[in-house]
Amino acid sequence: MTKTKVTLTGTGVPLPSPGRAGAGCLVRYGDLALQFDAGRGTVLRLVEAMQPPASVTALFLTHSHIDHVSDVADLAMTRWIFQPFAPAPSLPIIAPNGSTADFVARMFDPYDADIAARSTEVLSGRPTIDLRPFAPTTAPAEIWRSDDGQVIVEAVRVQHEPCDDAVAYRITTPDATVVVSGDTRVCDEVESLIADADVVVHEACRSDVLREAFADAGYDRVLEYHADVVELGAMARRARVRHLVLTHLIPPPLTSDDEAGFAHDVRRGGYEGELTVGTDLTTISAGIAAATST
Fold first, then answer.
1. Is 147 tagged catalytic?
2. pTM of the model
3. Which one from 31, 37, 67, 188 is the annotated catalytic residue?
4. Domain count, the chain
5. How far apart, in whole angstroms, are the C-alpha atoms of residue 272 and residue 114?
């Protein structure tokens, strides 16, 4: 039985949608818990997934857009606030150099008064993090390894202009390979990262629907740096992806027919493997292509 589990902690986008928290994905291998991105509602989703903040091994960020980082400070401060009950080391935060690492370095500033009050009343010191910035590269490169050497995380720079330091991650455990795309259009860098992966958690944009629905709202530029689902299906087929999981769904599906439309478009691209249109707390057992609701 595989030990690698993938849980979607948020499948939403900046536009609020019922039941969909901000972008996030939890990858677990045994006691190791790696969180990728922390959009709005991440802390609540982690608790619902039976993974309280103190138990998160490390947080990896793909880029600095608000729907991916709005709960980073919440995760770190909640971890600090509950130190008397659930002691934990400083939260390691792995982030690409540039706007993302800069955001993390400054994220506690608006909470100075709250931190000062809690420090004098209950807690000692201030919340701390272990920020580990890295330089994104155009070819996959190792940026983190577990203490026992069993789990490796690689990153590659992706194409999510105008954010020029966005990355995707590939996680290799002893029994599975998982990729978390972050935000990106379909591109060669991602295709190399997802080759032969067991599970690929990838953002998905129904470009035709979005273009029609928001024709007068200036959204054409947005389509240029998100992944069209038909093109995504074609890329997943070429890369021999075993299980494709759609997240960060644009536009947010409000009905079962809307969700079916995402799947239909991926199949139009030629992908024939296991396919899941993600909902919050969907959990995948990597390597055996089984999707269940937690």
1. no
2. 0.94
3. 67
4. 1
5. 51
